Amino acid sequence: GAGVSQTPSNKVTEKGKYVELRCDPISGHTALYWYRQSLGQGPEFLIYFQGTGAADDSGLPNDRFFAVRPEGSVSTLKIQRTERGDSAVYLCASSRLAGGPLEQYFGPGTRLTVT
Amino acid sequence: AQSVSQHNHHVILSEAASLELGCNYSYGGTVNLFWYVQYPGQHLQLLLKYFSGDPLVKGIKGFEAEFIKSKFSFNLRKPSVQWSDTAEYFCAVGRGGSQGNLIFGKGTKLSVKP
């Protein structure tokens, strides 16, 4: 079946602008995760949704970052007043809901460049 | 705080050589362990996982990993690498029994010379 999809694949924006990054998880997956991967680093956790609610947002770096998942499927990561340090690949992953831990399936990522 | 260390930044091997990539984590409780692979131009894919049971786990494409609890390690191995194994490999740890976030290492880039 279809995997996790993310749009856009690339986004270039000017410092101070607002951006939205979209994630469409695998159908039926109730858990959704956002990570950020900077050059030379592994993915770094941002936020995790279980259904519509954010179960853990401890990885969001500051209040310029916000994410929503209003209907428990598609999620949008929103970044206000972008800074050059926000440049990175933003990854989305999803997993099924079950009684225990399950692997996360990753999308291709959105490469954000802030100029 | 939890952390994951991958000992090698870049490993260069010839085809048919054996591979071992180190991964150590810091967390005292029960853990779920993963190795993900990212081939050039592709997204992260799961290579193998350990949740419980036999500490020696086998994944796709001939890879295996061994969980050694006393050493907080989960090293990845392959007896004979191929040129197609050229990729970046990430070790990741999650808290046992949880569906929460994963902590990733910085990754090891593997280059296999034909």
Task: Please render the helix and strand layout as text.
The complex is a heterodimer of chains A (115) and B (114).
Chain A: E1 5-7, E2 10-13, E3 19-24, E4 31-37, E5 44-50, E6 53-56, E7 65-68, E8 75-79, E9 88-95, E10 105-106, E11 110-114
Chain B: E1 3-6, E2 10-14, E3 19-21, E4 23-26, E5 31-38, E6 45-50, E7 56-58, E8 64-68, E9 73-78, E10 87-95, E11 103-104, E12 108-113
Parallel strand pairs in B: 2-12
Antiparallel strand pairs in B: 1-4, 3-9, 5-6, 5-10, 7-8, 8-9, 10-11, 10-12
Description:
The complex is a heterodimer of chains A (115) and B (114). Chain A is mainly beta. Helix content of chain A is 0%, strand content 48%. Chain A contains no helices and eleven strands. Chain A has strands at 5-7, 10-13, 19-24, 31-37, 44-50, 53-56, 65-68, 75-79, 88-95, 105-106, 110-114. In chain A, the strands form two sheets. In chain A, strands 2, 4, 5, 6, 9, 10 and 11 form a seven-stranded mixed β-sheet that branches. The relative contact order of chain A is 0.33. Chain B is mostly beta strands. Helix content of chain B is 0%, strand content 54%. Chain B has no helices and twelve strands. In chain B, strands 2, 5, 6, 10, 11 and 12 form a six-stranded mixed β-sheet that branches. Chain B is globular and about 40 Å long. Chain A binds chain B through residues 3, 31, 33, 35, 40-45, 48, 50, 55-56, 59, 91, 93, 95, 97, 100-109, and chain B through 4, 32, 34, 36, 42-46, 49, 51, 90, 92, 94, 96-107.
Describe this structure in a few short sentences.
Chain A has 115 residues and is mainly β. Chain A contains no helices and eleven strands.
Any key phrases for this structure?
heterodimer, A: 115 residues, mainly beta, seven-stranded mixed beta sheet, four-stranded antiparallel beta sheet, 11 strands, 0% helix, globular, B: 114 residues, six-stranded mixed beta sheet, 12 strands
Main sheet: strands, sense, barrel of chain B: 6 strands, mixed
State the helical fraction of chain A.
under 10%
Please, what is the average pLDDT of chain A? 93
**Number of H- or I-type helical stretches of chain A:** 0
